[in-house]
Amino acid sequence: MSTFRNPFAAAAAALVLSACGPQAQQPSEPAPTETETPSQPTETTGSATPRELDPLFAQAAQEFNVPAELLKAVSYTETRWQMVRGTEEFPGQQPAFGLMALRGADLEQGAALAGVSADAVRTDAAANIRAGAALLSQFATEASVERGDLGAWASVVARLSGISNADAQAEHVHKGVYAVINEGAVALNTDGSVAATLEPVQVEAKFARPQVRAMAAGPNYAASIWRPSPSSNYGARASGSTGDPSMIIIHTCEGAYSSCWSWLTNSASGVSAHYVVNESGSEVSQLVNEANRAFHIGATYDCSLNSSKECWLNGTQSNHFTIGIEHGGFASGTFTAGLIETSAKLSCDIARDNAILKDSYHIVAHGKLQPATRTDPGPNWPWASYLSKINGYCGTPTSSDIIIDSNTANNDATKARFELTGAWTAGSSAGYYGSGYYFANTEAVSAPATFWFYLPTAQTRTVDAWWVEGTNRASAAAFISFNAAGTNLGTATVNQQANGGKWVQLGTYSFTAGWNKVQLSRWTTAGSVVIADAVRVR
């Protein structure tokens, strides 16, 4: 059986799958130009998270007379058994919610059939599964499906997918849902206990197979399948240097792979991307030639959102100079190792062919450049390892630099980790490194942010720090460096009201073998905040 491990974000790190109710809102950060200090974080609320999903699937299957195998396979194909909180990725596409990725009218109808509220379907695992099962049951009744024949449910699966393209429907049914039924799957909690299982069942879907024809390779990437978007879904790049591809934008489909490329090749959608990578990384579709402008990001460029890089492009519609890669899955979910590997190979190829710099300023998140309406690819995209893989595939010499980001997902756990003590709050004002940062009140308390880094041997290294500047920041923030034995090597005091959005040198120190650290202290005059964003050791 295939194994899917799903390490959720820190707020739910103990469990693979979350069925919690809506989380309490975290306090907002003061704007960089304001002077008030932040309130303290609040804890999340909601119902307990179930550690076992099998009983929920079994109960819903029995209640609505739907095969449990089918219910599980649909859920796995759509969300990898993750309780997703969908956002809009494409205009006209309703956000998907829960283990069953229910959307729009289907979500409302499923809720009514299951006798629960739409809000419960969006936030509660049991309600979501029941609504999905009720909807499948209703569709089966309308199609006069022989319920004891698992293969006969294929048309119902196709209808629930919402896919209109016949080939994409067939791909979803045969290579998605019924492939999962035939191969089986298991999801584990992070402690190794089983959250959900699907034992393999050999069954043939009674549904038309994808049209048999030679699948041409994409014009720019030989390892892709060419599925061209119609000319109404893309255009010409701007003339001159503003039309030269200089950035790669990372997206999530906010849905499954087949529905994603189907929507982006539908003239009714009016949108496109250059590439789509499937959830396992086993397939890539190319939809638009890299020489053309795909319609994948709805924002003009603002360099203040990208650490003040490439400001000469300010005011240019971002599609003119970017290449977009969509990925099957959700910004609220996690990603398989196969998807990350395949995407990194693709990004390497794009960057090499278009002379795009392979760093975090030129390979960037959709949500970073369009933060008002987009969050993808979300907090669980492993930026540090992703960029490292891209450089590795492109043959770029491995840097000896170690970057410790405040977002753990961006760190190579073998040599970098981040730790908070006491009350800190997540921040996202423009100018941060990686994906966000943390801030806290200054006060006479020993509750630092700690940037750990591992050295295999004793080495002399230079330490730099990155922060987001603002008038309410500490004018004397102290970064203290320690060796692996805990010896204080020196303190660098910096003014975080200035010099933000770039690396600032703190000092050069002789570190020892093992886990050394740099701590950002909060112990200074009260009335301001300190910013823990990133540290670089070089």
UniProtKB/TrEMBL annotation:
Q: Where is this region: Disordered?
A: 21-50
Q: Does this UniProt record's set of keywords contain Transferase? A: no
Positions with biased composition (Low complexity): 25-45
Which EC number(s) does the record attach to this protein? 3.5.1.28
Q: Which Gene3D superfamilies match?
A: 1.10.530.10, Peptidoglycan recognition protein-like
Question: Which SMART domains does the record match to this protein?
Answer: Ami_2
Tell me, which GO biological process terms does this entry list?
A: cell wall organization; peptidoglycan catabolic process; peptidoglycan turnover
* Secretion signal, residue range per the UniProt entry: 1-24
Task: Provide any one GO MF term from the record.
Answer: N-acetylmuramoyl-L-alanine amidase activity
**InterPro entries xref list:** Amidase/PGRP_sf (IPR036505), Amidase_domain (IPR002502), CBD-like_Golvesin-Xly (IPR033803), Lysozyme-like_dom_sf (IPR023346), NAMLAA_amidase_2 (IPR051206)
Would the keyword Hydrolase turn up in this protein's UniProt record? yes
The N-acetylmuramoyl-L-alanine amidase domain extends over 231-378
UniProt-listed CDD domains:
CBM6-CBM35-CBM36_like_2, PGRP
One Pfam family per UniProt: Amidase_2
- Keywords for the protein's UniProt record, in alphabetical order: Cell wall biogenesis/degradation, Hydrolase, Signal
- Please write the reaction equations for the catalytic activity of this protein: Hydrolyzes the link between N-acetylmuramoyl residues and L-amino acid residues in certain cell-wall glycopeptides
Protein name as annotated: N-acetylmuramoyl-L-alanine amidase
Organism name: Corallococcus terminator
